[in-house]
């Protein structure tokens, strides 16, 4: 389902294939960014529900705004100023709690991203170590003529593509494809 563009207000977004940093998150799909999908889903599951303090503060802020709208600033200035000071104090307290929540969420996101990248890196190292001398794909040596030796490094026969070369090539292709699509 297409969303309305945040920049132009049109639907669908006309900036999908350009570098629209405002609209891009709305249009990126989970299969094009697996790490982001894992992070957002994990954060959704790990995000604590709104605390009772935050809910109480939001209710108090709403109440103070309602009271402030009901008081005339010119006729009852002392009452208006008192309610406005209380509202400012409540908003500052709510913003401090929200900032703390965002900081904790950012720390969790960085931790999850680090763990995800570490597991992926260890898996790649294991594949290169365990299957480094076995070709992923074996082709006739003439098919890979100019680059056959480079693709066979380390330890594969001529005409084979090693696991290390396969990982480098596939990573490059995926990144370029994602850059072209997004």
Describe this structure in words.
This protein is an all-alpha fold and 182 residues long. It has helices at residues 24-27, 34-46, 52-70, 77-131, 148-152, 163-181; strands at residues 137-138, 160-161. A two-stranded antiparallel sheet has the order 1-2. It is rod-shaped and about 90 Å long. The two termini are 16 Å apart.
Give the gist of this structure.
This protein is an all-alpha fold and 182 residues long. It is 63% helix and 2% strand.
Q: Helix coverage percent of residues?
A: 55-70%
Number of domains: 2
Low-confidence region ranges:
15-19, 26-32
Strand order of the largest sheet: 1-2
Number of strands: 2
Helix and strand sequence = HHHHEHEH
Mean pLDDT level: 80
How would you sum up the global shape? rod-shaped
What structural class should be given to the helix and strand makeup?
mainly alpha
Topology:
Blueprint lengths: L23 H4 L6 H13 L5 H19 L6 H55 L5 E2 L9 H5 L7 E2 L1 H19 L1
Antiparallel strand pairs: 1-2
Helix pairs in contact: 2-4, 3-4
Question: Top keywords for this entry?
Answer:
182 residues; mainly alpha; two-stranded antiparallel sheet; 6 helices; rod-shaped
